[in-house]
Amino acid sequence: MGEEESRGRDTRERLLDAAGEIFAQRGFRAATVREISRRAGANVAAVNYYFGDKERLYAAVLKYTFSKAVEKYPPTLGLENSSSPVERLKAFIRSFLFRILDEGRPAWHGQLMMQEVAQPTAALDQLVDEAIRPLSNRLMGIVRDLLGADSNDEKVRLCTMSIIGQCVYFGHARSVITRLFSQTFGPVEIEHLADHVTCFSFAAMKGISSTGNPVSMG
């Protein structure tokens, strides 16, 4: 790699890191290219040169932060293909919670993703297709293994969304949970949450698979 190419890559990554922090703090609409460039130590024109405009910079930031978080906390966490469905479920939940709640780099990943889900932009479609859908399909495969091969698609889908809902709740309600229960979200606490969500979800799916529908609707 030449010196000029190396400088270009460095500038591009500094813009992505600075933009991620500012988008997470202010949201897409309130963030400005000027502030992002200043924090990155780059010229304002660099955003247009490397990304085209603010919208495409934002889409690149979402993709960049998601890939960095999945690289740090992969959904398999290094498990072998022969691992049991429960082990794979725990690994998936643990990695998901760490991606949402971890305060390490990129610390703003979870906040940025929560913002995008709550106030979607045009970038969400691409993010879903390229990043979120593959993870969703992976979790659905685990859920199907736990429910049994004869489970229908709707049951698999609903159980998958219930697991995701439990995890996402801790991201959305983090500030409320902290005030209600003095809950902290360090590595030990996140591990404990992963154990709880795994046990809770496994017990629910075990009940559903053994009885068909444990809840009578009258």
Written account of the structure:
The chain is elongated and about 60 Å long. By secondary structure, the protein is an all-alpha fold. It has helices at residues 3-26, 33-40, 45-50, 54-72, 85-101, 109-118, 124-147, 153-172, 174-181, 187-211. It contains ten helices and no strands. The termini are far apart. The protein folds into two domains: 3-52, Homeodomain-like (Arc Repressor Mutant, subunit A, Orthogonal Bundle); 65-211, Orthogonal Bundle (Tetracycline Repressor, domain 2), CATH 1.10.357. Helix content is 74%, strand content 0%.
Please give a handful of descriptors for the protein shown:
single chain, 218 residues, mainly alpha, Arc Repressor Mutant, subunit A, Tetracycline Repressor, domain 2, 0% strand
